[in-house]
Specification:
- There is one protein chain.
- The protein is mainly α.
- The relative contact order is 0.18.
- It has ten helices and no strands.
Length: 254
């Protein structure tokens, strides 16, 4: 099995990884606290939350499988070489587990707080249903061929797809309302920090191993950060430039 060549780079990689874990994990709380203070979820797009739950659930399955399953690890090394390190670290598993719990709790808040006229769209429900039906088909195929790495990569690509589309409903909602009230910018700032440090961790590992397999061997993690950073920057522009919160609006609504 592969091992680190540099103790310093190993430490730096762990620092980046756990900073990403902390930033991404804490990023869920500003929205949860904002919902609690307002006793309302008006302004938070429900499609975003539902798609986010599917995204994090599939990402958890991928991370846990690669990190814990010897069968998946064996197939990964057979494909990319036994001198390559696994592309999933402990902080990845910890983050995705926490993300599923917090996203599910946000859905619980949607169920109990003032929702106004907002609801989950039929398009989102259709997308989520189709996604899990596709995964069920992949599971049947994988069982027949014992293609466990291929199967977990299906979950990984599902989370990439959900990452790409989950931000769109919120961005469109902000544009239509010409406001970001009800949507926490704290979530976005922490998400941006998590995305940047996640790339830092991957880059450090690649430098140490003199190989970029870490990036294309886990294309889901690579695209996850890239897409997240793009939309985080978009939301920052919406919040601070296009639709800045007026001073007369109370801080409880920001």
């Amino acid at each position: 099995m592969a091992s680190w060549n540099s103790t310093e780079l190993k430490v730096l990689s762990n620092v980046f990884g756990w900073i990403a874990f902390c930033a991404w994990s804490i990023s869920f709380y500003p929205q949860v606290l904002l919902n609690f203070k307002r006793k309302s979820v008006v302004g938070l797009n429900f499609d975003f939350v539902v798609l986010n739950l599917t995204k994090h659930s599939s990402y958890l399955i991928y991370n846990a499988s690669v990190f814990f399953s010897s069968a998946v690890q064996r197939q990964y090394h057979n494909k990319y070489g036994f001198n390559q390190m696994l592309p999933v670290a402990a902080n990845d598993v910890a983050f995705s587990s926490h993300a599923v719990l917090l996203t599910a709790f946000t859905l619980f808040q949607i169920a109990i707080y003032d929702r106004g006229t907002q609801k989950v769209s039929r398009i989102t429900m259709a997308i989520v249903s189709a996604a899990w039906i596709a995964i069920a088909i992949c599971i049947i195929i994988a069982i027949q061929k014992h293609s466990w790495l291929w199967l977990v990569n299906c979950f990984n690509m599902l989370q990439v797809f959900m990452t790409v589309i989950k931000y769109i409903p919120q961005a469109v909602m902000n544009f239509r309302r010409k406001s970001t009230i009800g949507f926490s910018i704290g979530n976005i700032l922490l998400d941006l920090l998590g995305g940047l440090t996640n790339y830092g961790q991957m880059a450090v590992q690649s430098i140490d191993q003199h190989s970029w397999v870490n990036f294309y061997g886990n294309i889901g993690k690579t695209l996850l950060s890239l897409v997240s950073i793009f939309f985080d920057l978009l939301f920052i522009v919406q919040h601070y430039v296009l639709y800045p919160v007026k001073k007369e609006i109370s801080s409880s609504e920001v």
